[in-house]
Q: What sequence folds into this?
């Protein structure tokens, strides 16, 4: 016999093969791809059985995988086989294999699940333990290991505050500590717990109450469970055919969000992060203003110009680069002392651009800027954009979560007048990374702008409503089922609890203002708290240029000390366009463990302790 041959038995790949047959030849049995093949047949040949393409082929017929045409030398088709009879035959074959006959790996076959049990008791190709009663693979041991580590380390159930936020190692040291080598024989599953343990011990505990470093944090049990479920199902969010539940969930969530942000109608799509969501906005705005750009490109057109504040996210300039607009066609609009875009400055900038022969087409407002947490005056900016006929987009990736709070949603007043917005529930709200949505009030525009009409995915003659196939309005083909993660989180947690969490972090963010040695950069608008720490040696001195140079060195040194000790993580940065030297930015999010006033006090006490001698 050749590889995979067996006398009427089932092989590793699920074929039943007889003596003298080549790979894939079977006398009236089922192959790897669901074909039933007879002796002497080529791939796809079967005597009156069903093939890969759902057709019934007779002997001497092949299937052309490229053109899917029958070869001209082989034309005769066999009659269709009665499917109920075929099922009976298959059941009879399974019954004949109950004695566990020998497969090409010199082992027995479990007729219940087709797993291969070698003579030495090991499992191939999968690794797992063997049930001695029926020889089946128990499975799931690795998943149990992961779950045990997550629970033992309390990564989602409330981490011990005495634990380090990070056990910092320099890159070279970390590379030497981790077993990074991938071996041909793999890694023993029985040692997986140590492997997983190494990953956890050397990772930053973003769920720690003392992690204030980024615009995201840990996640709760609901968020993790939803993320695990979508990964286990591992499908693509492009057609109802392969992702029916996730498609209807995304449609529902987008509809609810459109209403939540104050639009009567609209459209949207979940994207891989806020940067891509912002790029979607720029692409659809350009298409709406100049539809011919989709076919002809930007050649021969007036230069299109986008406007954004001096506090906006860097994704706006990256989008301009990727879309071929050029960085020179992104105009930075000044902000006030709170970091909010000035409407009069925007109007003047638009007029100047027009006088230069360029074409304004897009304004990016920010609802919760990255550093200061500033909310641009959306109503006033909408008025300017409506007068000028320019698309208004709101980057609400960070501060958009205020929309779920009746107490704080006023910060987003005027967002209903925008043409589009982006929002990242994986930031303040505590959904798992990544979870980002782009929304527009212009229904159908996403599809018009991005559609490529791939006929192997988006056939219009499907047996269901093809409008449920959302993939053609995406710039991606492969797309994660991220909408489900938000839906699952809110479904289990509820809107009241979500609102309470948002209100709580807003309240805690106001705790810094009256502490000696801590000077606020500006009153918090979102949950960013930006401040200088002035050590005792610098207090009460004249604030000269030299003094500010000394202050600028405090935050980097304190940050280094806190990371090396692992006691706290808070970010720092300068703002050159505001002439502000290095200062701390403490960020509060709703994800993971609930923070308390005691946690805020600890963070400030720790900064004071670490910087007292500076």
A:
């Amino acid at each position: 016999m050749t590889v995979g041959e067996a006398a009427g038995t089932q092989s590793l790949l699920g074929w039943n093969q007889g003596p003298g047959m080549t790979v894939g030849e079977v006398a009236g049995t089922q192959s790897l791809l669901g074909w039933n093949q007879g002796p002497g047949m080529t791939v796809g040949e079967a005597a009156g059985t069903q093939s890969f393409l759902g057709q019934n082929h007779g002997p001497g017929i092949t299937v052309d995988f490229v053109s899917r045409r029958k070869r001209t030398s082989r034309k005769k088709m066999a009659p269709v086989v009665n499917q109920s009879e075929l099922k009976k035959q298959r059941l009879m074959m399974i019954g004949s294999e109950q004695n566990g006959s020998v497969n090409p790996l010199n082992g027995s076959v479990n007729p219940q699940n087709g797993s291969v049990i070698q003579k030495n008791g090991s499992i191939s190709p999968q690794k797992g333990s063997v049930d001695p009663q029926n020889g089946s693979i128990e499975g799931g041991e690795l998943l149990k290991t992961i779950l045990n580590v997550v629970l033992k380390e309390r990564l989602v159930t409330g981490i011990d505050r005495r634990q380090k936020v990070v056990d910092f190692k320099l890159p070279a040291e970390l590379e030497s500590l981790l077993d990074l080598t991938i071996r041909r024989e793999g890694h023993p599953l029985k040692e997986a717990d140590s492997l997983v343990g190494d990953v956890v011990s050397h990772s930053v505990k973003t769920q720690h109450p003392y992690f204030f470093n980024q615009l995201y944090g840990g996640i709760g049990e609901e968020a993790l469970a939803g993320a695990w479920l979508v990964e286990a199902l591992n499908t693509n969010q492009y057609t109802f055919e392969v992702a029916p539940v996730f498609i209807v969930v995304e449609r529902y969530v987008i509809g609810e969000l459109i209403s939540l942000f104050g639009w009567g109608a609209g459209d949207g799509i979940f994207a891989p992060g806020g940067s891509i969501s912002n790029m979607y906005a720029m692409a659809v705005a350009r298409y709406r203003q100049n539809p011919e750009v989709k076919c002809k490109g930007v050649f021969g057109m007036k230069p299109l110009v986008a406007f954004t504040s001096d506090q906006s996210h860097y994704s706006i300039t990256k989008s301009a680069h990727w879309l071929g607009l050029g960085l020179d066609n992104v105009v930075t609009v000044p902000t006030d002392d709170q970091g909010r875009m000035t409407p009069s400055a925007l109007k003047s900038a638009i007029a100047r651009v027009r006088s230069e022969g360029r074409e304004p087409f897009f304004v990016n407002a920010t609802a919760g800027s990255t550093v200061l947490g500033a909310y641009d005056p959306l109503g006033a900016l909408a008025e300017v954009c409506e007068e000028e006929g320019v698309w208004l987009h709101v980057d609400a990736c960070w501060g958009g979560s205020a929309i779920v709070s009746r107490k704080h949603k006023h910060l987003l007043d005027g967002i209903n007048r925008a043409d589009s917005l982006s929002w990242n529930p994986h930031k303040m709200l505590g959904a798992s990374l990544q979870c980002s949505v782009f929304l527009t009030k212009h229904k159908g525009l996403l599809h018009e702008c991005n559609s490529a009409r791939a006929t192997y995915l988006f056939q219009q003659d499907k047996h269901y409503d093809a409008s449920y196939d959302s993939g053609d309005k995406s710039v991606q083909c492969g797309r994660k089922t991220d909408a489900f993660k938000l839906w699952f989180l809110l479904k289990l947690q509820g809107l009241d609890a979500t609102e309470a969490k948002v209100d709580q972090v807003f309240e805690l963010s106001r705790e810094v203002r009256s502490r000696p040695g801590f000077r606020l950069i500006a009153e918090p608008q979102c949950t960013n708290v930006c401040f200088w720490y002035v050590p005792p040696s610098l207090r009460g001195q004249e604030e000269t240029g030299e003094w500010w140079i000394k202050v600028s060195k405090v935050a980097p040194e304190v940050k280094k000390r806190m990371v090396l000790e692992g006691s706290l993580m808070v970010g720092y940065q300068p703002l050159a366009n505001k002439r502000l030297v290095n200062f701390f930015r403490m960020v509060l999010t709703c994800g993971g463990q609930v923070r308390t006033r005691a946690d805020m006090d600890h963070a400030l006490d720790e900064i004071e302790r670490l910087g007292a001698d500076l």
Summary: DSSP finds 17 helices and 21 strands in the chain. Confidence is low (pLDDT under 50) at residues 1-81, 86-128. The radius of gyration is 31 Å.
